[in-house]
C-alpha cells in the first residue's frame, strides 16, 4: 500500500500531513508513525498529523470543519501542537476543505483560525486560567504542558541536555513536560529555544511553547504588552492575548505555515 503524504513546516517545526477523511490510516501502528517521522529511514518530521472528518455530536452548536489528530515523532498520540495546528489549517485549505477561516477540533477542544493571502495563519489557542510561578521557572498548560525559564547566553545553552534533565525530573513525573529556555531582547520581544517531549530533542520551533513563553513573561512582569514577538530557531512567531480577571483569553498564535513537498511512500 502506498501512502500519499504532504510535508509542511511552520518556522522550522515540520510535519507529515495525511488526509485521513476515509479512515484508512493505521492509527495504532506506533512503529509505522515513528518510521515515517524518522529523518534517515522515513520522510522526516517532528510529528505526523491526520486531517479527519469530525463525527462528534456533543459540539452540534459549532460548525466544525475537521478534526486534528497529532502524533509526536516517537509514534505516540500527543497533546496539542500549535505550529502543527497552523500547518493543518493551510493543508485543509489546499484540499478545499476550508477557505480563509475555520473552526476545527483537536485534543484540547475547539480552535478558530484564519489564513491570509501571505500564508500567515492566526490560530486561537486555549484560554489559560492557571499559571504556576516558582522561584526559577513558570509552569502552565497552553494545550500542552510547558516549563518556562529565563537563562543567560541562550545561544550557547545546552538545551537538549538541560531540557532532558527537567523533562524527566521528579518535578513532572512520567508524563513529563516540554521545557522552554528564554532570553529577553526588548520590552515585548523574546528569543526562545525549546526541548520537546515526544521528540526528545530541541526543535526549531514550538507553537504551544511560544504561547506559554509570551504568557509567562507577562505574568513575571517582564513585559506589559499583550502582543509579543517570539524569535525561535526557525523564524519568528507572534502571540497576542487579552488579560482578564479569569486569566488569559483570546490567545492567538500567529505565523507562517508553508507547504514543502508531497509524495508517496510504501507502507
Sum this structure up briefly:
This protein is α+β, with helices and mostly antiparallel strands and 267 residues long.
Largest sheet: 17 strands, mixed
Q: How widely separated are the two ends?
A: 6 Å
Instruction: Determine the structural class based on helices, strands and strand pairing.
Output: alpha+beta
The helix/strand series, from N terminus to C terminus, equals EEHEEHEEEEEEHEEEHEEEE
Provide the residue-averaged pLDDT.
Answer: 96
Taken from the alpha-carbon principal axes, the silhouette is globular
The fraction of residues assigned to DSSP E strands is: 35-45%
Question: What ranges have pLDDT less than 50 throughout 5 or more consecutive residues?
Answer: none
Task: Give a structural overview.
A hairpin with a 2-residue loop joins strand 11 and strand 12. The longest helix has 13 residues. Helices cover 16% and strands 43% of the residues. With 267 residues, the chain is of the alpha+beta class. The radius of gyration is 18 Å and the shape is globular. The model has no long low-confidence stretch (mean pLDDT 96).
Task: Write out key terms for the chains shown.
single chain; 267 residues; alpha+beta; 17-stranded mixed sheet; globular
Question: How is this fold's topology laid out?
Answer:
Layout: E1 2-10, E2 13-19, H1 30-37, E3 47-52, E4 66-72, H2 82-94, E5 101-106, E6 109-115, E7 120-124, E8 131-133, E9 138-141, E10 145-150, H3 159-167, E11 178-186, E12 189-196, E13 201-203, H4 207-219, E14 227-232, E15 235-244, E16 247-256, E17 258-266
Parallel strand pairs: 2-3, 4-5, 10-11, 12-14
Antiparallel strand pairs: 1-2, 1-17, 3-4, 5-6, 6-7, 7-16, 8-9, 9-10, 11-12, 12-13, 14-15, 15-16
Amino acid at each position: 500500500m502506498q501512502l500519499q503524504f504532504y510535508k509542511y513546516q511552520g518556522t522550522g517545526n515540520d510535519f507529515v500531513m495525511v488526509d485521513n477523511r476515509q479512515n484508512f490510516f493505521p492509527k495504532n501502528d506506533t512503529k509505522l508513525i515513528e518510521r515515517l517521522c524518522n529523518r534517515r529511514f522515513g520522510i522526516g518530521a517532528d510529528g505526523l498529523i491526520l486531517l479527519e472528518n469530525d463525527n462528534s455530536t456533543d459540539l452540534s452548536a459549532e460548525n466544525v470543519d475537521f478534526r486534528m489528530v497529532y502524533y509526536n515523532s516517537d509514534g505516540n498520540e500527543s497533546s496539542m501542537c500549535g505550529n502543527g495546528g497552523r500547518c493543518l489549517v493551510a493543508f485543509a485549505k489546499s484540499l478545499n476543505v476550508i477557505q480563509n477561516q475555520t473552526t476545527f477540533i483537536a485534543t484540547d477542544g475547539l480552535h478558530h483560525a484564519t489564513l491570509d493571502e501571505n500564508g500567515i495563519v492566526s490560530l486561537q489557542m486555549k484560554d489559560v486560567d492557571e499559571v504556576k510561578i516558582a522561584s526559577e521557572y513558570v509552569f502552565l498548560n497552553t494545550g500542552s504542558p510547558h516549563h518556562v525559564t529565563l537563562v543567560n547566553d541562550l545561544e550557547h545553552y545546552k538545551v537538549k541536555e538541560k531540557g532532558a534533565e527537567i523533562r524527566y525530573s521528579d518535578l513532572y513525573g512520567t508524563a513529563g513536560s516540554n521545557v522552554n529556555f528564554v532570553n529577553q531582547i526588548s520590552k515585548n520581544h523574546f528569543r526562545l529555544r525549546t526541548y520537546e517531549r515526544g521528540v526528545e530533542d530541541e526543535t526549531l520551533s514550538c507553537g504551544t511553547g511560544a504561547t506559554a513563553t509570551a504568557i509567562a513573561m507577562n505574568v513575571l512582569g517582564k513585559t506589559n504588552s499583550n502582543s509579543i514577538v517570539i524569535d525561535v530557531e526557525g523564524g519568528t512567531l507572534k502571540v497576542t492575548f487579552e488579560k482578564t480577571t479569569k486569566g488569559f483569553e483570546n490567545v492567538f498564535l500567529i505565523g507562517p505555515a508553508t507547504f514543502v513537498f508531497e509524495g508517496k511512500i510504501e507502507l
